[in-house]
Amino acid sequence: MDTIAKLHKEWKSLQPLKPELQHRMDQQFMFDFNYNSNNLEGNTLTYGQTKLLLLFGKTEGEALFRDYEEMKAHNVGLEMMKREARDKERPLSESFIRELNSTILVGDFYKTSNDGEYRYKIHTGVYKTRPNSVITPSGESFDYASPEETPSMMAGLISWYREEEKKRVLSPIQLAALFHFRYIRIHPFEDGNGRIARLLVNYILYRHGYPMIVIPTDDRKNYLNILGQCDKNAGTEPYRGANATIEQAKPLVDYIAGFVESKMTKLIQFAAGEIKTLAETDVVEKNAENQQHTESINGNVVENVVETMATKRQKAIFNFIKMNNQISANEISDLLKTNMRTIQRDIQQLKEKGIIERIGGDRGGSWKIKEF
């Protein structure tokens, strides 16, 4: 924590950032947080699709329509959370958390039971009306708070948080981690609990002048293992988890502290001009690399056309053009955080290979993908 305290002091001394740096930082976080937090819960949008959706409102691709809707709504929830956190006169409330849940889940919807036997309605923004226990890998049932316990436990959680925030005994990182664990052990809603927990971690960090963090989808197994360690420390009874101590939640405190330290180090380097990108993970190239493009020619299947491109960056460019045929080289440069000259060279190579073609001028024109 001493290292984090020093980094935080240096980070505060750099405020306010130049507007263009602040904009780049905010935009990168918007992409990374929305993509990763939703993908952790099974959202099928790729990183590229997420960027195009949030920048241009484009919904091309094969992802589920609800996944597009929830990604957009999650970004609205992110902005709501930031606005709420900036209002230092307004304490955290249950009504805000319920509103946040209703927002990110885009209204009531139906789900099918795990055994496929029946459908039931999810009432967003309303505490659960049925148990939401889970079955562990060992086959045992792990219980969260019952529907009957949930209202009083949530009232207790908010009361505890307000008191701890005033006392300032716990650091913002400790407070955020312990809140996350206690909240998850209540699991107050029928859906969206993980996303709400991560939004509220960032609510606490942002409210206290710390940079917001992203828990990457690639670290999902480790993230769940950390929460499992805290479960063992606190005990399996919902009441114990909802009243866990800072010592019992230490694995999660250390986990979140690691992300905060890494993020502040990177932001300080970015503000100093030592690094040019703030991407949390390498998901742009990873998604482009894994994407397959399959079309039929006279009954024959041509697979992985994207693999004919020389570099991962060119694959990413191809996918951006495929999803938005009016995207400009400047917009691609901004999306990939790569200088314009490099993007223009890659685009020229794609054109020379016959993979893409420009129809019309730079303004008002569009891209055409070669028909194979």
Could you give the distance between the termini? 57 Å
Radius of gyration equals 23 Å
Low-confidence regions:
282-310
Main pleated sheet:
2 strands, antiparallel
| Tertiary shape | globular
Can you describe this structure?
By secondary structure, the protein is mainly alpha-helical. Helices cover 56% and strands 7% of the residues. The chain has 15 helices and eight strands. It has helices spanning 2-13, 19-39, 47-56, 65-86, 94-104, 150-167, 172-186, 193-207, 220-234, 238-242, 250-271, 283-290, 312-323, 329-336, 340-352; strands at 109-112, 119-122, 134-135, 141-142, 295-297, 300-302, 356-359, 366-369. The protein has a two-stranded antiparallel sheet with strand order 1-2. The chain has a two-stranded antiparallel ribbon with strand order 3-4. A two-stranded antiparallel sheet has the order 5-6. A hairpin with a 6-residue loop joins strand 1 (109-112) and strand 2. Helix 7 (172-186) packs antiparallel against helix 8, helix 12 (283-290) crosses helix 13 and helix 13 (312-323) crosses helix 15 (340-352). The N and C termini lie far apart (57 Å). The model is unreliable at 282-310 (pLDDT under 50).
